[in-house]
Automatic annotation (TrEMBL):
CDD domains: PsrB. It holds the Pfam family Fer4_7. InterPro entries: 4Fe4S_Fe-S-bd (IPR017896), TAT_var_transloc_signal_dom (IPR030948). NCBIfam families: MoCo_extend_TAT. It comes from the Bacteria. Gene3D superfamilies: 3.30.70.20, 3.40.50.740, Formate dehydrogenase/DMSO reductase. Coiled coil: none annotated. Residues 755-785, 839-870, 871-900 form the 4Fe-4S ferredoxin-type domain. This is 4Fe-4S dicluster domain-containing protein.
């Protein structure tokens, strides 16, 4: 039965003749929406914060409004290509070969781009490539998107066009030529043959001009020594894969020494094969990556290192130069004898800033006829001339320099006598700085030219003699920038573009060997080189005599060095590098003075941990030659030579830096005469410093099943069951190997792909390139110092560093096994937390172990984490409700919780908080939100891409075609990823190796990540 009731909302509706009711009934929006006014005004629309819902409300109700939006509205979001470039397929990555050459790091690399955006650095693995990207090289892609880059050239601090700059500089050059004023080109090491030709042309056009090469971190003494012996200003190159005995005196051969990149060759000799492996002896002051990986580490002051080098010279050459006695003399003499016995299979290197020391290095390697020593193909990088730079500063202060043109240098920040340079700069009539950023130097010059990032540039590089590389742009310039080379062409009256000039030069270099297109495709070309001829009149005996007279100048010896993450400080505004924990100290977001325990006790300096695991330390004041550096935090460093302290360069920057990244102290102020060793006075200052140190976070206590190691002698003479012990458990009251026991029902894993990751502890140097590569590939957020200190870092991959309590890990095992009774055991284990004065060190990368019997999967109440058929432990972010049960149940502590939304959050003002920085994000990987768990996925997007590529090409996946971010970044070969179901794959063979073991094997999680026992050649 129909109802006759009438429902109404307003009394007005009861009036049948109401015009208001009729109007409202036929027109939902009483007032006209001002679409014409809003959408027709470009400025109003571009600055609007209108939401998507409001935008649809505006344009969704009339054809006219929609048409207007289509015609007039500016493009805010990306749109499909009208004419799609042939080389770009949406959703498919493109790779371009290029070369980084920023004056400090040099390497042949590949750049992964997505839809025209560079998002990741890969190693160029073609034969003969000078590859081996370190952490800084991997992070350099983020520096492209630095929001504080100089976006337009400036004159006297005001925006200017290139035409304005060109006119001003041209006038200055003409004035200098007319008046006979000196013109100086001050550049970093570019190692660019085409640029050298342009500079020569420039000097020909400007007869009063000269070129000075300046490197913030100098190798001037090594360059001088090589030039004296071989007649060429270069650095001897080394191939450590050819050495059986390596002796290093103060050279971090696994760090930044001579440009780095030695770890691949080094690791080849460190993996025991056929019962043999190389022996590495390190003599040094600071604990370095090389010292941490050495078989024998001898801590010494710099003065003692010089004397030790003379003693080795005496043994190798038969000389008899008198030297003072040194600490650990017996160990030094034994090293010298082992080196001599190895003959051509031995090699000696040194990082001492002393031309006499570097001369002895060349003499010793020539006497040994060392196969690893390559003087015929020297390195043409790090070619700064400290004497020429010192003279330039004097000339500037004297008013001699008329025009100063700088490229790729920041002397106001990096020069120890920065105040003198600034004073001289005020007397220079025209100063020009080509710079990526408006840094300390660009702010002081009259003209600051915005330059492109290397990923936006053309160029060429000769890293070593006979090796010619190309730098090519992988994205169009983001800003109004000008290359230094383009400017030189303009100022020499050459109408050609730099690309045309470079192409002509490069084509001539590879004539008869390759085409220009192949050169650009491969990224490099190798030409034959004639053998080096040594100089005839070098007096090595006098050099040894002078070095033997070296004396400690009193006080503590300060040894300045560069950190694996920060380098010379060029990328100090890069949040990936700031949050990267130092491999040795495990501290991020800081530099600090490292002090031995004995010296710290004398000076009253302390470190202590607070209740949440955070590390605190004293402040100190360091004085070198009347220059004081105040409020320097202190780290008490095991292995630091007594009588020495260490301090990293590259920190303390303020200009063109986000507030959060203005951290640390500027150690360049103590870099007097560009010598890395200085005599210093240290005193305790007031207050305590809070460090962001991850060493006490997520630790795996008890080393028996974590770091397994043995000696080469035991490895060669005893059965694997004795040095790679399999844990035993009780099964039916019988002792049974844990590998034979399973409390879970297993499924058939032999069908399809099954992924494993192998990590060789002998080859892993702890360099951390894998950590940054993981950041780039998987959109890992940066959380900042405060959150890292709270144990909230988001690294999917960490590199645990272990110290021995005794002088060796073997001594630790004996001490632990000797403990008996409750109180004795407590005292023993408490004491073992205190490292030795000169400990052995072990590095171990740890990520999600992708357990086949994963404890995290069983406790998740919403099934957000589950196991895949291919062996990966999956995370469904949309299902996760953040209970963190999985993290509590994970024995490896590899899961991370998003305490905050790190993306588009001003509280975390890093690259994810601005549009430019977010261009680096990988579109294949989710950006996680607050409240969800995340962890290593074994780069499932990369494995699936490989499978789909093979499927599209109608073929099987290649034998070792599978890669993940960490294994692809590992230049030492420590990480190998692949399909264990492919029995021909490298990872399948490694899984059968006697050295293979799993972490915490006794708990039965059956991980898909496995390790190899570390073998020491003691």
């Amino acid at each position: 039965m129909a109802s006759n009731k009438k429902y109404w909302k307003s009394v007005e509706e009861l009036n049948e003749n109401s015009s208001i009711v009729e109007t409202l009934r036929n027109n939902e929006f009483v007032e006209e929406i001002p679409t014409d006014e809003f959408l027709g005004d470009k400025d109003a629309l571009s600055t609007s914060s209108t939401t998507r819902r409001d935008f649809l409300k505006y344009v969704g109700f009339s054809t006219a409004a929609a048409s207007l939006a289509a015609c007039e509205g500016p493009v805010i979001k990306s749109i499909p290509y009208v004419v799609q470039p042939e080389e770009i397929i949406p959703g498919v990555a493109d790779f371009y070969a290029t070369t980084i050459a920023d004056g400090f790091d040099f390497a042949n690399i590949l750049i992964k781009t997505r839809e025209g955006r560079p998002i990741k650095v890969e190693n160029n693995n073609l034969p003969n490539a000078k590859t081996g990207a370190n952490a800084r090289v991997h992070a350099s892609v983020l520096s492209l998107y630095d929001s504080l880059r100089l976006k337009q050239s400036k004159i006297e601090g005001k925006d200017a066009s290139w035409a304005d700059v060109d006119a001003k500089v041209t006038a200055a050059l003409a004035d200098a030529k007319a008046k006979g004023g000196q013109v100086v080109l001050l550049t970093g090491t570019m190692a660019s043959p085409s640029t050298d030709k342009l500079i020569a042309d420039f000097i020909a056009k400007n007869p009063t001009a000269k070129h000075v090469v300046y490197d913030a971190v100098s190798s001037s003494d090594a360059l001088d020594a090589f030039q004296m012996v071989y007649g060429e200003r270069a650095l001897a190159d080394y191939d450590f894969s050819k050495a059986d005995v390596i002796v290093s005196v103060g050279a971090d051969i696994l760090g930044d020494w001579q440009g780095g990149g030695y770890d691949a060759g080094y690791a080849q000799g460190r993996i025991p094969k056929n019962g043999k492996m190389s022996k590495h002896i390190q003599i040094e002051s600071n604990m370095s990556l090389a010292g941490a990986n050495a078989d024998k580490r001898i801590p010494m002051t710099v003065t003692e290192q010089k004397h030790a080098l003379v003693k080795i010279y005496n043994v190798i050459t038969g000389a008899s130069v008198s030297t003072p006695k040194v600490a650990n003399e017996e160990a030094v003499m034994k090293a010298a004898q082992q080196l001599k016995a190895a003959a051509g299979k031995g090699v000696l290197v040194s990082g001492l800033d002393d031309v006499n020391a570097q001369l002895l290095v060349l003499a010793i390697n020539r006497a040994l006829n060392a196969e690893a020593f390559n003087p015929a193909t020297p390195r043409l990088i790090r070619k700064g001339d400290a004497k020429a730079v010192a003279q330039l500063v004097k000339d500037m202060k004297a008013g001699v320099v008329h025009t100063l043109i700088m490229n790729g240098v920041n002397p106001v920040y990096t020069l120890p006598n920065s105040a003198d340079f600034v004073e001289g700069l005020s007397k220079v009539k025209m100063s020009v700085a080509f710079s990526l950023k408006e840094d300390e130097t660009a702010l002081k010059t009259k003209v600051a030219v915005a330059t492109p990032h290397y990923l936006e540039s053309w160029g060429d590089v000769s890293i070593v003699k006979g090796h010619y590389s190309i730098t090519q742009p992988t994205i169009r310039p983001l800003f109004d920038t000008k290359q230094f080379q383009e400017a030189l062409l303009a100022w020499t009256g050459n109408p050609a573009s730099y690309y045309d000039f470079l192409k002509a030069h490069g084509t001539a270099v590879v004539a008869g060997g390759a085409t220009w297109n192949k050169l650009v495709h491969d990224g490099f070309y190798v030409t034959p080189v004639t053998a080096a001829v040594g100089g005839a009149n070098v007096d090595f005996a006098s050099a040894a005599g002078a070095l033997a007279q070296a004396k400690n100048l009193g006080g503590l010896e300060l040894v300045l060095y560069t950190k694996t993450g920060m380098g010379d400080g060029q990328q100090a505004n890069n949040p990936w590098l700031q949050e990267f924990p130092d491999p040795i100290t495990r501290v991020s977001w800081d530099n600090y003075v490292t002090v031995s325990k004995k010296d710290a006790e004398k000076l009253g300096l302390v470190n202590y941990n607070v209740a949440n695991g955070g590390l605190n330390g004293s402040y100190s004041t360091i004085e070198v030659g009347g220059v004081k550096l105040e409020n320097v935090p202190v780290i008490i460093q095991p292995g630091q030579a007594v009588g020495t302290i260490g301090l990293a360069l590259g920190y303390g920057r303020k200009e063109a830096m986000k507030q959060e990244m203005q951290v640390g102290v500027n150690a360049y102020t103590l870099y007097a005469n560009m010598k890395s060793d200085q005599s210093a006075k240290v005193s305790k200052a007031n207050g305590d410093h809070e460090f962001a140190c991850v060493q006490l976070q997520k630790t795996l206590m008890g080393r028996g099943d974590i770091i397994k190691e043995t000696t080469l002698e035991i490895f060669n003479t005893k059965d694997a069951a004795e040095w790679n012990i399999v844990p035993m458990v009780s099964l039916d009251h019988k002792e049974t190997p844990t590998t034979k026991v399973d409390i879970w029902d297993s499924f058939d894993r032999s069908v399809g792909h099954h992924f494993n990751l192998s990590i060789d502890l002998n080859a892993c140097t702890g360099c951390g390139a894998c950590v940054i590569a993981c950041h780039a590939e998987n959109n890992v957020p940066v959380v900042g110092k405060s959150e890292v200190r709270r144990s909230r870092d988001m690294h999917w991959l960490r590199i645990d560093r272990y110290y021995s309590s005794q002088d060796t890990f073997k001594g630790d095992v004996e001490l632990k096994e000797g403990a008996s009774g409750l109180m004795n055991s407590i005292d023993t284990f408490t004491g073992m937390e205190d490292p030795s004065e000169n400990p052995q060190v072990a590095f171990q990368p740890v990520m999600c172990q992708h357990c086949n019997h994963a404890p995290c999967e069983t406790v998740c109440p919403v099934a957000a984490t589950s196991h895949g058929r291919q062996g990966q432990n999956h995370m469904a972010y949309n299902r996760c409700v953040g209970t963190r049960y999985c993290a509590n149940n994970c024995p490896y502590k590899v899961r991370r919780f998003n305490w905050f939304l790190y993306n588009k959050n001003s509280e975390f003002d890093y690259h994810m908080n601005d549009d430019l920085g977010r261009m680096v994000l990988n579109p294949d990987v989710n950006v996680r939100s607050r409240g969800v768990m995340e962890k290593c996925s074994l780069c499932i997007q990369m494995t699936q891409s490989t499978i789909l590529k093979a499927k599209r090409e109608g073929r099987l996946v290649g034998k070792d075609e599978f890669q993940v971010a960490c294994s692809a970044a590992c230049s030492s070969g420590a990480m190998v990823f692949g399909d264990v179901n492919d029995k021909e794959s490298q990872v399948a063979k490694l899984a059968e190796d006697d050295r293979m073991y799993h972490l915490l094997e006794h708990i039965g999680t059956k991980p898909n990540v496995f390790y190899h026992v570390k073998v020491r050649n003691t």
